[in-house]
Design a protein that fits this description.
The protein has 513 residues and is an alpha+beta fold. The chain has a domain at 197-490: Methylamine Dehydrogenase, Chain H (7 Propeller), CATH 2.130.10.10. The protein contains seven helices and 30 strands. The chain is globular and about 85 Å long. One of its GO terms (biological process) is mRNA splicing, via spliceosome.
Length: 513
Amino acid sequence: EVQKHSVHTLVFRSLKRTHDMFVADNAKPIPLDEESHKVKMAVKLRTEYGSVLHMPTLKENMREKGGPNTGDPYGHKQYSGNQGQELEYLVTGTHPYPPGPGVALTADTKVQRMPSESAAQSLAVALPASQSRADANRTAAGVGDIYRHAGISERSQPPGMSVAMVEAGGNKNSALMAKKAPTMPKPQWHPPWKLYRVISGHLGWVRCIAVEPGNQWFVTGSADRTIKIWDLASGKLKLSLTGHISTVRGVIVSARSPYLFSCGEDKQVKCWDLEYNKVIRHYHGHLSAVYGLDLHPTIDVLVTCSRDSTARIWDVRTKASVHTLSGHTNAVATVKCQAAEPQIITGSHDTTIRLWDLVAGKTRVTLTNHKKSVRAVVLHPRHYTFASGSPDNIKQWKFPDGNFIQNLSGHNAIINTLAVNSDGVLVSGADNGTMHLWDWRTGYNFQRVHAAVQPGSLDSESGIFACVFDQSESRLLTAEADKTIKVYKEDETATEETHPVSWKPEIIKRKRF
């Protein structure tokens, strides 16, 4: 008797069979057909270098190649235009040259691009006189000379042949070289980070953490409704601040004034004066729990984000709500500010990231690539880029338009927090207590950490809610669900030999979405 299956099962099996059949050929290069390759190259030659194919070849090139006709594998006729005259130059394509004066020409440093006449002249000026005289015999002619030699005036170029086309050439691939599959560049080596201090004192989950600009102390906010200030060097408690009536979800210390700002699930946003250790301002307006806050680096503006699906911009001094940033359709989990445009970036549980125009109070760009809640966003301190964390992936983006760079896959958990330092170490902390460390440029995951919970805690209380580098970037502080703050530092004894990068230059298979 034939067993009946649902349409869903049959379709799934068919897909699986197709996948198994073709998976071995995935990402393999298509075999090259010599005949069609020859025709393609001949067409490329004629289209891109048609105006210079008639030109004579250099004597030294002839000697190397053993005659005028041996160098052309595609059977093009070599025109002997200036018979009897001394051959001065050669243009048969792009010529390798170093990226700057005084750089030795090797396979790694060579650049292949057709210089414009002005660029060639400026390069000749930059070179020493003797070197420029020697190189003059070897460089290609200027664009103007090419057209004059061909009997065409510079002004009356054929409509299809623009100077830009003659100047075109790849960075390391000329038009005639077969393209290779992109491979992942070798990641920079980073020493591993090790746990060296565990600080306890809170009576609830530690939800947020911030280091003050002078790097003397740091501040934490907790589910026990208190804000605590700790000495960074010794880890000793300096001060406890009470005033919130629910979990404290965000803290930040101002670099422009002696103020500490905090927000919590009690819908309150408070400004504390650290000279008197008292609340001096409240910012009223959010309709639900306030999940995060950030200060603008150059103007006295505070930005908060909330479960009410909005972010609000506040004037620090007057307490006025300057803008309400509406557009998200679910809780806004994280907000970041920067001096350059776009000045405000938000991540939300509606799976989108929005880049905002601070002046107009409107969305500039909405990024919809994530499939799950975006709980963390971090801006690179030096590059004009940022990263966002979600259970599906960590994604890197370029400012100002939010162009996608790459995915950092492998941290399969709810990512609560991201931090990055100037060395290009990206840290992602997750709800299950795991912490992954990545090389920012290549996206290589060089270390995974899962620290034990403090004695007396359940294993289920393993979770990282926030992490931050101190101002020297030599310490990493994490705020955790076992009510502790853990401090990590780089292992000074580690070397590239003892902790090698287990990296293979495999072909990149990056998903766009």
